[in-house]
Amino acid sequence: MSLSASIIQFLDQFELEYQLTEPLDTPQWHDQQLRSQAAARATLLEDDQERVLAVFPADSMLDLGAVNKLLGRNLVAMGPQLLNKLFERYELSSIPALPGLAGLTTVVDQRLLDNPTLYLDPGNSAQMLKLPQKEFEKLTKNAKVGEVSVLLSNLEMPLRGDDEAIITNSVKHFTALRVKERLEETLELPPLPETAQRIIQLRVDPNADISDLAHIVETDPSLAAQVVSWAASPYYSAPGKIKSIHDAIVRVLGFDMVLNLALGLSLGKTLSMPKDGVFGITRYWQQSVYMAAAMEGLVTAIPRDHRPGFGMAYLSGLVFNFGYLVMSEVFPPYFTKLCRTLEANPHVDHPQVEKHLLGVTRDHIAGWLMDLWNMPDEVIFALRHQNEPDCEGDNAAYAKLLFVARRLLAQRGLPCGPKLEVPAQVYKDLHLDPVKAEATIDNILESSAELEHIAAQMAPAA
């Protein structure tokens, strides 16, 4: 993809001296390449008055609160539908980081003016603009300049210590903001559902059989319908019609998968789906279905001697984003703020935004709650450490598999985070061949229609 004609015209208008970098072999690494060069990237913001272009370093998170304070506004990120129309109209793949483009009011982060040479996102995912600082300054004469970003490296350090202590400290931080002071008052969460309790008890019963599991699932009509629907999906190509839970277990899914599937679905029903969400769209079940399928595939791609438990990996994938639901109930006033900041920073993963705004992540809260509910240690560890590729411990493989699955799905355009590479060491730790991992995810996405159907079946009951 070459530079848009409108971008070339804008650059010529200012008679800028610039260079275009060599085209990237893998344009999907757009986020990765911009960040590695601390290149300038941009976000389009808007309110009921006008649109504003925010330009900031790609190795940072745009601080939406700082922008609004600087301008005295209440700006939010432009929605994806309008953005896509602009991209199509002007032949762009991203928002060009060019201050003053289209006459827009522009906010520029101060740190961009400290570099002798700058790289910029020109709206083309395959290349970057390179220009001297003096040339960039020609574009910023009418821009508002301020400290409107936060270094991601400061937000990516793992939070160490006991989950409850971390959450308590976070709650204390909010006392000054008039949020409830005591942790137990703040976490007004429902108890573990009875169905989930019975399934957990069944997991540790050495004498449990198919009839026991079928009976538990059948006592919850909604859950039973979802399990049957899952088994009947074209994704599993089951011969004949699925007539019962027993049929779904014996002929299609198997005891272990149905047990973990039922547990994951039961947990998903524990909390209400937030009406808010990134761009107002809840993708919880879509992400859950794809992640469960990805974990299922990646485990089978690992040599048998090094494979983690299939059932625990599958369940971890199904509930990997449970913290999203918990976060919306724990910090309702700040959940909306969290969503708006994520919208303005599609290149940033949620833990960094949550640390900046709340001092705690959804992964910590989900891990803490799962521990209170006596969920399996493998799942607790996986959720708690899924964004820490360097984590260690007996259950580290589950967390690292979640890390790999999310990144590979995101690289292929699924809404699971920014498009970033998987470090080679993570593959090595898992004894997972990167080529096999890539092929596994590609094979799963060939069945995207079937997976979307399963997700749609889950959503109404959520």
Description:
The protein is of the alpha+beta class and 462 residues long. It has 2 domains: 5-152, YbaK protein (Alpha-Beta Complex); 163-188 and 271-461, Hypothetical protein af1432 (Orthogonal Bundle), CATH 1.10.3210. Helix content is 51%, strand content 9%. The strands form 3 sheets. Strands 5-2-3-6-9 form a 5-stranded mixed beta sheet, with helices on one face. A 3-stranded antiparallel beta sheet has the order 1-8-7. A hairpin with an 8-residue loop joins strand 7 and strand 8 (129-132). The longest helix has 18 residues, at 284-301. The radius of gyration is 24 Å and the shape is elongated. Mean pLDDT is 85; it is low at 175-186.
Number of strands: 10
- CATH topology name of the largest domain, in short, is Hypothetical protein af1432
Give the strand order, joined by hyphens, for the main sheet.
5-2-3-6-9
C-alpha-based Rg, rounded: 24 Å
What is the overall number of helices?
23
Q: Main sheet?
A: 5 strands, mixed
User: How would the global form be characterised?
Assistant: elongated
Summarize the structure.
The chain has about 450 residues and is α+β, with helices and mostly antiparallel strands. The protein has helices at about 5-15, 30-35, 65-70, 80-90, 135-140, 165-175, 185, 195-205, 210-220, 220-230, 245-255, 255-270, 285-300, 310-320, 320-330, 330-345, 350-360, 360-370, 375-385, 395-410, 425-430, 435-445, 450-460; strands at about 20, 40-45, 50-55, 60, 75, 105-110, 115-120, 130, 145, 150. It is elongated, with a radius of gyration of 24 Å.
